[in-house]
Design goal:
This protein is mainly α. The C terminus is likely disordered.
């Protein structure tokens, strides 16, 4: 039953997080996604009929939001000209995490007899991630204070051979 819920939540999560990324800092949106994941992981051990629908909603929102944030952060922090290299490294790390991720859960299950400690540990790792994102999740060159960075972008104004296109207008663009 949770697969259809995850599918619908994934679509809604992408739409909502895309909207929020236009309005808020990517750090705030990613922190909210990590908090949702932490809450979902903390609810898994006490899975009851009331929480059976909340867990996939929380985890689905977290996963879809993190996916949207990743694309924006890579482009804004490392530039579009480096996007291919950054996406390749990030995707490789994601694949590695997917491959190694079940291992700690299996070790916990073998030693404890259930997965409860693994889910609780995962929730705490998400909370550590929130702290890391808020403390260090800023673009290179931006101070550790976490203020918004400002990138200045220059665009050609006008077009034509009469020299009118040689004027340069300064436009400000917010970066995460």
């Amino acid at each position: 039953m949770s697969s259809p819920i995850l599918a619908v939540v994934g679509i809604i999560g992408r739409l909502l997080s895309g909207y929020l990324l236009d309005k808020l800092s990517a750090r705030v949106v990613q922190s909210a996604a990590l908090l949702a994941a932490a809450l979902g992981f903390f609810l898994v051990p006490s899975m009851a009929s009331t929480t059976a629908y909340m867990v996939p909603v929380l985890l689905g929102m977290s996963i879809s939001t993190a996916s949207n944030v990743r694309g924006c952060v890579h482009a804004n922090m490392f530039g579009r000209e480096n996007l291919g290299k950054i996406q390749t490294v990030a995707s490789s790390v994601t694949v590695l995490g997917s491959a190694l991720g079940p291992f700690p859960f299996g070790v916990v299950k073998d030693n404890a007899g259930n997965f409860d400690a693994a889910f609780i540990g995962s929730g705490f790792l998400c909370l550590v991630g929130v702290v890391a994102v808020l403390k260090w999740g800023h673009p290179p060159g931006e101070g550790a204070g976490g203020g918004e960075a400002e990138m200045v972008k220059y665009e050609r104004v006008g077009a034509g051979d009469d020299g009118a296109g040689d004027d340069v207008e300064e436009a400000e663009e917010d970066v995460i």
